[in-house]
Amino acid sequence: MGLLAGSTVFLLTLLWGSCVVVGKCDLSDNSISIDTKDTRGFSLFGSGVSTDLQTSYAARIMTVSLLPFVIVQLPKIFKFPSGQRLTILITIIISVGLVLSYCIYQIFQPWIQRRRLAYAKHKHVISGILRHAQMQALGRLVTSDGEPNKPVIEKLFYKIDLDEDRVVSHSELRAFIIGIQFENIDLNEDDAVDRVMAEFDTSGNARIEKDEFILGISNWIKEAKRTVENSGSYSKKFVHDFHMKTKEQHDLLIDNSDEGVEEIENPTMVYVKAILLLLLGTIIAATFADPLVDAVDNFSLATNIPSFFISFIAMPLATNSSEAVSAIIFAARKKKRTSSLTFSEVYGGVTMNNTLCLAVFLALVYLRQLQWDFSAEVLVIFLVCLLMGLFTCFRTTFPLWTCLVAYLLYPLSLILVYILDFKFGWS
């Protein structure tokens, strides 16, 4: 259990902070790292790393993976020791379920990414149409009381209706969208038209009537105002801000990777191999658990060093050395894409610690009817994961000063464990 706690703390503190230091690049005016440009030295606010949105989602998954630690401690928290064994069994089931869910998510992640990118493109089309209407001097899209300006929306409708038959057809809408310049976005015009038609054409007659058009544009305006609430009711400003925000969301999702990606000839075999390797790793962990503990205990007796600190400090450095070297090598390339891969690997490793490794450990405790008394270790894991999870799951840029936060958590976690174990006697 000390090894599990030490491994998680090591990944989220020393390794995470080192990846920020090694991968730092100059930060632009909009706080995005500039690939391979590192001219500001160790500027705490002027240099740092940026990741994509997918990496922040990995951090959120890591935070959710703390659930088994909360459940397994419930008998201790509410002081009903008789329910400890049942709680451990429930925690094992939940941990295994989270592992399977995480694996399934990894399999379908490319599909989920494409869906998110398609949605981001659609929102950018919405903002582009609103901005185009504003720029063409058709009038203010919002009235003085903050409501959609229907006469101006009608002008836009008549502008799109080229044949003046009082309906907007598929071809007319396509011509209008093609006429709008969507910069730096790989837009499929037919798909964009189909999405707008499906959203506006509530009658289902494959045409957009005036009332449908006014309602659709009004809903877009209300959505834009909700998205950029701080931009006020002045239509030109909030439409511009909405357009820039949708472009930023698209740019964060789009795959700018310049890494060579190999085609997988037989994906089924890759999945099977991955599952077998997971099972093999589980068997190895279960088989060598006792010899590992014995070796730590013997070394502890020989050196008079508490066994927990050997497993918490020394062993994680050895067991995570290959993962640490791989992460630092990727971070050293100083690119947003490689930084994203680096931190995703770190969060993924912690997620597997919190689910698969905990499930194996709890299975041994349950089958051998051992006493569960690891409140200090669980608290350290929970606090470090929660703090770093909340710190990383809502942001994509990390200035250099953030590495100090991670580094500081490492000695603090050691001090916390020492106080709980040796001063308050939690173990």
TrEMBL record:
Q: Where in the cell is it found?
A: Cell membrane
Organism this protein belongs to: Dendrobium catenatum
UniProt xrefs under PANTHER family? SODIUM_CALCIUM EXCHANGER MEMBRANE REGION DOMAIN-CONTAINING PROTEIN, VACUOLAR CALCIUM ION TRANSPORTER
Name of the protein this chain belongs to: Vacuolar cation/proton exchanger 2
Superkingdom as given in the UniProt entry:
Eukaryota
Keywords of the record, alphabetical order, are: Antiport, Calcium, Calcium transport, Cell membrane, Ion transport, Membrane, Metal-binding, Repeat, Signal, Sodium, Sodium transport, Stress response, Transmembrane, Transmembrane helix, Transport
Q: Name one GO cellular component term.
A: vacuolar membrane
Topology term for the membrane: Multi-pass membrane protein
Q: So which residues are the signal peptide here?
A: 1-23
Query: Transmembrane region positions?
Result: 86-108, 270-289, 309-332, 344-368, 374-394, 401-420
Gene name of this polypeptide: CAX2
User: Cross-referenced InterPro entries, in alphabetical order?
Assistant: CaH_exchang, EF-hand-dom_pair, EF_Hand_1_Ca_BS, EF_hand_dom, NaCa_Exmemb, NCX_ion-bd_dom_sf
> What is an annotated GO biological process for this record, any one?
sodium ion transport
Q: Where is the EF-hand domain?
A: 148-183, 188-223
Report if keyword Metal-binding is assigned. Answer: yes
- What terms describe the molecular function in GO for this protein? calcium ion binding; calcium:proton antiporter activity
Family recorded in the similarity comment: Belongs to the Ca(2+):cation antiporter (CaCA) (TC 2.A.19) family.
Principal location listed in the UniProt entry:
membrane
Q: Name one Pfam family in it.
A: Na_Ca_ex
